[in-house]
């Protein structure tokens, strides 16, 4: 049997990152193909190339035996390929039938006006096909998440039919992260029904679901194929083992400089909950301790950090700093309490790019450098120069605009800023993202030094290896709850030990 | 499984629920009852026709704002464009300042002038990505300035009595402007509900990114929406001149506030994506009835404005979609 889709040797590079390298997959008619891999393994990139959002640097795509060029999402749609993203693409303020045919009204236009009766009839037909029991004139805002997804799937099926494609393909990107158990059951039943007419590519972190639903599963690792398994052979352990397994160069993370953290507890969380994000989180952070927070998208780790930094509020639970109960209602308060936060989006949230280095570094403590009404510029300069020397920030002088520094140096400026302000707890989100290998190593050294000086840190790293390499302790979160706590001071766990808690 | 045959029941729905038997309609009815009790002169035939007449111009400008607000934009150029077109009309028909005598053709020309500025609004908005707030404010100032420039600040008195029939004439008992407003209402309502363009306008107010991603030409739609608005303003300008007997650039003072207010009171969200054309009309009548009622009660104009202001803030607070605007500036 001929495959409906064949992606052959697809390669794609983004500045500084090789996202995909010679990846090949096939999709046959009437099947559900799973696509799994770590964050950054390349799943989304591969599918976005198929959906026309990105273009591959190398490689070819064949649809139904014919070589095709997909330059734009409209090309993909015309070829019968649809994508249902996590962020929904339906308009809540309009009716179901209007959403179904949005952009393709010309099929229903009769002398300049829309034939809404016809639209509703067509809509009723397709809704019946996907098993949605709805009136077509219902407003989308009245539908729940799963129903909205099915409307999107229905739209894609209809579009493919308009393009007169016999074997449409629909890509589902993390369709179940916000669904309840029973809704997932229903979705799976519908998908199994629909696969008689449509082939699905199912991207998910939830290995249990992938194993249950998919006819075949592809694993991607570091932008390359790492195996393809049939429904009979596949299992969660098999997938996990294929998803990770790089070599861990211990000294890259300067593990030898790892210290046992002090006894003093600087930060404690008790039963912290935020509805829809994380539930019942409790742990203690000690002085000089490096804690890695692991988890996939949807695990709640980012939301937890945002709540700790005061960007969002907890629904319930207690936070204790230095033995005193506190409420953190804003970043200003968090900073006053000694908590700092390095965002992964350093260009927009970490630095003021158009300001020079010395302004950025001294920004949080400017009020300490004031004499009378005036800021002491020489002090700003002096302190910045000190930091620049200490952290080896490569720039001619502290007056250089941060805009002009390299990614690694920019990140060092951000770290310098927090170092200077002497926070007690520093939360770092992907501190080495977009930074070259050499600079990464320097930043790891910095992290070690800060720990030696007593700063406690919560780090969300770019990879399991980074999380494991840096940490004294690792907390894994899954679906909003803590699924595992591992010690990494005495001996380092292997990534495969970690992954069973993650997915 | 039988297909939901109720698909066709939409046409069986009562006209009441089609408009959306909504709080605004009820509010309007309550107001009418309220004022009728307070003042016997309110519910007389002559006063009711008076209300229809008074509401006409507001109805037409509200039609434009309805479209634009549903799209998620705003139009602050109403007064300017209406004023300029009013001045232009006065200079085109028989008047004391020049020897033109275009008669009813002036109405058409006003529509074109309005269309031109409407087009500018939409074009600058979509091409240069300047927020509609800014663009229309600027165009409003420009048009007012042009109006002052042309007349050197003095109203232009017209002598064309036939032209004045546009606003002063009646067909049967109904004031002509009302009939015109009614006609325009049906046209705009039709466009909004029955054309793809009308549906796109509402979709844009819902989520512009989604609409764009589907390949729908959003710039074109925005430009067309403002263009239609401009034509409506031009017509109102001509009607205003006909009513007052002169072209006065300051005559439309308050039109912008009233038109936006009418839409909001009728239930069109200022954040976009919610509402329909009939709601704007209900809102226009609510505002007109409020004013008329308060006048009959002898309420001072300053207090009237204050009361209307309070009602507006309350309505916006109740209908605004806070999820769309995370930071209130």
Notes on the structure:
The complex is a heterodimer of chains A (503) and B (329). Chain A has 503 residues and is an alpha/beta fold. Chain A has 17 helices and 24 strands. In chain A, the strands form 6 sheets. In chain A, strands 6-9-10-3-11-12 form a 6-stranded mixed β-sheet, with helices on both faces. Chain A has a 6-stranded mixed β-sheet with strand order 18-21-22-15-23-24, with helices on both faces. In chain A, helix 13 (377-391) crosses helix 14 (407-420) and helix 14 (407-420) runs parallel beside helix 15 (437-452). The two termini of chain A are 34 Å apart. The mean pLDDT of chain A is 86. With 329 residues, chain B is mostly helical. In chain B, 70% of the residues lie in helices and 2% in strands. Chain B has helices at 15-19, 23-38, 45-70, 78-92, 105-128, 132-151, 161-168, 176-194, 196-206, 208-213, 218-244, 255-266, 277-297, 301-319, and strands at residues 156-157, 170-171, 174-175, 246-247. In chain B, helix 3 runs antiparallel to helix 11 and helix 5 (105-128) packs antiparallel against helix 6 (132-151). Chain B is globular. Chain B starts with 14 loop residues before the first helix and ends in a 10-residue tail after the last helix. Mean pLDDT of chain B is 87; it is low at 1-19. The A-B interface holds A 73-74, 89-94, 98, 102-103, 105-106, 109, 112-114, 116-117, 120-121, 123-125, 127-128, 133-137 and B 1, 3-4, 6-8, 10-11, 190, 194-196, 199, 202-203, 205-207, 210-211, 213-216, 273-274.
List strands and helices in order, with pairings.
The complex is a heterodimer of chains A (503) and B (329).
Chain A: E1 5-14, E2 17-27, E3 32-36, H1 43-50, E4 58-63, E5 66-68, H2 73-78, E6 81-84, H3 96-100, E7 109-110, E8 113-114, H4 116-129, H5 145-162, E9 169-173, H6 181-194, E10 199-203, H7 207-213, E11 216-221, E12 224-230, H8 236-243, E13 265-274, E14 278-286, E15 290-294, H9 301-308, E16 316-321, E17 324-326, H10 331-336, E18 339-342, H11 346-350, H12 357-362, E19 370-371, E20 374-375, H13 377-391, H14 407-420, E21 425-429, H15 437-452, E22 456-460, H16 464-470, E23 473-478, E24 481-487, H17 495-502
Parallel strand pairs in A: 3-10, 3-11, 6-9, 9-10, 15-22, 15-23, 18-21, 21-22
Antiparallel strand pairs in A: 1-2, 1-4, 4-5, 7-8, 11-12, 13-14, 13-16, 16-17, 19-20, 23-24
Helix pairs in contact in A: 13-14, 14-15
Chain B: H1 15-19, H2 23-38, H3 45-70, H4 78-92, H5 105-128, H6 132-151, E1 156-157, H7 161-168, E2 170-171, E3 174-175, H8 176-194, H9 196-206, H10 208-213, H11 218-244, E4 246-247, H12 255-266, H13 277-297, H14 301-319
Antiparallel strand pairs in B: 1-4, 2-3
Helix pairs in contact in B: 2-13, 3-8, 3-9, 3-11, 3-12, 3-13, 4-5, 4-6, 4-11, 5-6, 5-11, 7-11, 8-9, 9-11, 12-13
């Amino acid at each position: 049997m001929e495959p409906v889709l064949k992606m052959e040797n697809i390669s794609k590079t983004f500045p500084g990152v090789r996202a995909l390298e010679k990846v090949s997959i096939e999709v046959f008619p009437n099947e559900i193909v799973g696509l799994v891999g770590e964050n950054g393994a390349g799943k989304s990139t591969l599918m976005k190339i198929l959906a026309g959002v990105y273009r591959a640097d190398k490689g070819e795509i064949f649809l139904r035996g014919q070589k095709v060029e997909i330059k734009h999402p409209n090309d993909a749609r015309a070829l019968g390929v649809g994508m249902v993203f996590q962020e929904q693409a339906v308009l809540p303020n309009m009716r179901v039938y209007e959403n179904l045919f949005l952009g393709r009204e010309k099929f229903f236009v009769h002398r300049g006006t829309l034939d809404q009766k016809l639209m509703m009839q067509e809509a009723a037909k397709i809704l019946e096909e996907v098993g949605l029991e709805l009136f077509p004139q219902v407003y989308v805002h009245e539908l729940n998440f799963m129903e909205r997804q099915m409307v999107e799937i229905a739209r894609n099926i209809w579009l493919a039919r308009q393009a007169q494609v016999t074997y449409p393909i629909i890509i589902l990107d993390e369709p179940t992260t916000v669904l309840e158990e029973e809704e997932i059951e229903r979705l799976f039943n519908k998908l199994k029904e629909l696969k008689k007419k449509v082939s699905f590519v199912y991207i998910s972190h939830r290995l249990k679901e992938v194993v249950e639903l998919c006819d075949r599963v592809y694993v991607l690792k570091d932008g390359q194929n790492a195996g393809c398994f049939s429904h009979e052979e596949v299992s969660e352990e098999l997938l996990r083992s294929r998803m990770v397994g790089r070599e861990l160069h211990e000294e890259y993370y300067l593990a030898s400089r790892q210290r046992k953290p002090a006894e003093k507890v600087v930060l404690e969380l008790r039963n912290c909950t935020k509805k829809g994000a994380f539930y019942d989180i409790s742990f203690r952070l000690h002085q000089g301790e490096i804690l890695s927070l692991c988890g996939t998208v949807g695990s709640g780790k980012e939301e937890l950090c945002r709540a700790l930094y005061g960007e969002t509020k907890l629904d319930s639970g207690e936070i204790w700093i230095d033995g005193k109960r506190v409420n953190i209602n804003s970043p200003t308060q968090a900073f006053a309490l000694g908590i700092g936060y390095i965002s992964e989006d350093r260009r927009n949230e970490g630095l003021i790019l158009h300001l020079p280095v010395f302004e950025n570094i001294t920004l949080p403590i400017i009020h300490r450098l004031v004499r009378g009404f005036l800021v002491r510029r020489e002090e700003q300069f002096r302190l910045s120069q000190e930091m620049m020397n200490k952290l080896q920030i490569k720039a001619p002088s502290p007056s250089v605009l941060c805009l002009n520094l390299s990614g690694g140096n920019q990140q060092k400026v951000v770290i310098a800023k927090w170092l200077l302000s002497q926070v007690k707890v520093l939360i770092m989100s992907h501190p080495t993202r977009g930074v070259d290998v050499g600079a990464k190593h320097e930043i790891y050294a910095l992290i070690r030094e800060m720990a030696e000086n007593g700063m406690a840190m919560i780090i969300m790293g770019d990879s399991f290896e980074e999380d494991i390499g840096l940490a004294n302790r690792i907390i894994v979160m899954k679906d909003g709850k803590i699924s595992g706590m591992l010690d990494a001071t005495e001996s380092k766990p292997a990534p495969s030990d970690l992954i069973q808690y993650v997915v | 499984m039988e297909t939901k045959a109720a698909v066709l029941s939409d046409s069986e729905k009562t006209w009441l629920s089609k408009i959306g038997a909504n709080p605004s309609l009820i509010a309007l009815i309550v107001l009418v009852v309220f004022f009728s009790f307070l003042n016997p002169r309110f519910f007389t035939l002559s006063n009711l026709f008076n209300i229809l007449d008074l509401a006409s111009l507001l109805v037409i400008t509200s039609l434009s704002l309805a479209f634009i607000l549903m799209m998620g934009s705003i139009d602050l150029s109403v007064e300017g464009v209406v004023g300029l077109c009013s001045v232009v009309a006065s200079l085109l028909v028989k008047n004391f300042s020049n020897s033109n005598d275009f008669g009813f053709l002036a109405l058409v020309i006003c529509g074109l002038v309005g269309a031109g500025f409407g087009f500018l609004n939409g074009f600058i908005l979509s091409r240069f990505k300047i927020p509609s707030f800014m663009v229309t404010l600027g165009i409003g100032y420009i048009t007012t300035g042009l109006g002052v420039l042309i007349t050197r600040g003095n109203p232009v008195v017209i002598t064309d009595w036939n032209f004045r029939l546009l606003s002063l004439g009646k067909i049967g008992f109904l004031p002509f402007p009302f009939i015109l407003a009614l006609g325009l209402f049906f046209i705009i309502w039709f466009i909004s509900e029955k054309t793809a363009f009308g549906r796109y306008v509402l979709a844009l107010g819902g989520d512009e990114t989604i609409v764009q991603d589907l390949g729908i030409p959003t710039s074109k739609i925005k430009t067309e929406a403002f263009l239609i608005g401009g034509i409506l303003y031009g017509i109102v300008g001509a009607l205003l001149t006909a009513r007052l007997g002169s072209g006065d650039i300051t005559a439309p003072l308050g039109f912008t506030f009233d038109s936006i207010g009418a839409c909001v009171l009728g239930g069109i969200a200022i954040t976009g994506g919610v509402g329909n054309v009939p709601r704007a009309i209900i809102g226009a009548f609510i505002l007109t009835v409020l004013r008329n009622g308060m006048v009959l009660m002898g309420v001072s104009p300053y207090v009237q404005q204050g009361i209307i202001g309070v009602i507006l803030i309350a309505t916006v607070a109740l209908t605004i979609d806070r999820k769309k605007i995370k930071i209130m500036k």
